[in-house]
Write a structure and sequence with these properties.
The chain is mainly α. It has a single domain, classed as Glycerol uptake facilitator protein, CATH 1.20.1080.10. Helices cover about 70% and strands about 0% of the residues.
Amino acid sequence: MSHDIGRKLVAEFVGTFALIFVGAGSIVAAYIVGGGDAGASLVTIALAHGFVIAVMVTAVGHVSGGHFNPAVTIGAWTTGKIRGGDAAAYLGAQLLGGVIGALLLRAVVPEEAWRGVSLGATLIGDVSVAQAVAIEAVLTFFLVWVIFAVAVDPEGTFRAVAGLPIGLTVALGIMMGGPFTGASMNPARSLGPAVAGGYWADHWVYWVGPVAGGIVAATLYDLLVLRRRRPEPTLEEAP
């Protein structure tokens, strides 16, 4: 493994680890603060996820592109923004970061608290499985579209501070989709608590929906915006 890809994988691991530890951890904390109300503080939970993504993308976006999400990496690979081997390595680092983050969260918070909210797992609420897939796909479409607009597009107005609009998009997605699907938008976000807590119900939804939404968003932005400006996008390691 080259030094360059090694540091990228460390950045992807740490960013995804932070997302699960802080994001899922905010659900556990809201449960405690809310006196055992599992539905407490949707806005707080949304902002915690959004803030940690904003901070981590800003911190290491220049290193790895700040994907922290298999749906983003697969979208980037689909449109030629990252090589296949590097994309596979990114996926491994992200999934490992998600699992380790969830395992550590389980180890450091009270059992009654994490069990009360299923360790912050993304679970389907009062919607059908088909509706859940659609919600996850649409929310991830918005997320990847914004990522391409502000971080991949060389003319993106906010590229230097891309973490802010990306984090806000994550927060907005949770404010809408949280009660219905948990608004994962990220297979690694769902895999961590599933492995650490054993919450596997309809887990495939959190792969199919986000990956489909990410591929559609990346492909459309690439075709409708990027390719209209230049003949072919160059292979890059980022968004």
